[in-house]
Amino acid sequence: MGRQDVRHGDGALQGMSIGMKHAKAKGFTLIEVAVALVILSWVLGSAIFMVQQYADERLRLRERFFSSSVAWNRLMERYQDSQGWIAKSGDNTKQRKGVDDQAGQGWRWTMNIEAAMGQDLYRYEVTAGSEDSERNAASLAMFLIDKNP
Hints:
The protein is rod-shaped. It has one domain (29-145): GSPII I/J protein-like (Pantoate--beta-alanine Ligase, Chain: A,domain 2, 2-Layer Sandwich), CATH 3.30.1300. It has one helix spanning 30-83; strands at residues 3-7, 13-17, 95-102, 105-115, 121-130, 138-145. Helix content is 36%, strand content 32%. Strands 3-4-5-6 form a four-stranded antiparallel β-sheet, with helices on one face. The protein has a two-stranded antiparallel ribbon with strand order 1-2. Strand 1 (3-7) and strand 2 (13-17) form a beta hairpin. By secondary structure, it is of the alpha+beta class.
């Protein structure tokens, strides 16, 4: 084909070859899009993993907190019993078990009583955990002088 003159707004002529015009492609190549998708999936996967870890740790902390509260309550009840502040339980076994309700959930506890060195000195250890789990999330111990453990 031949050459064609094109007149612009300022009146100048500029030659342009018809059929030889190449427009510069605008946009992303397939490789660029693929790399961007790989990076995006990696970032989103990491974010989901972090949210899951946060939720799991939050549940573990909740379980430890309430288990510790149940164990502490059992020890304080035993202390009050030894001081005569509350009525004696009448249970003289060396191992006691039970379930307390706290925060709308059952928490199992086990108290072991062992004679320690000394007269009327006993070691009280309470382990506690969620009723749904076999694992103990908290364990507390105290020594107490008690005539009737």
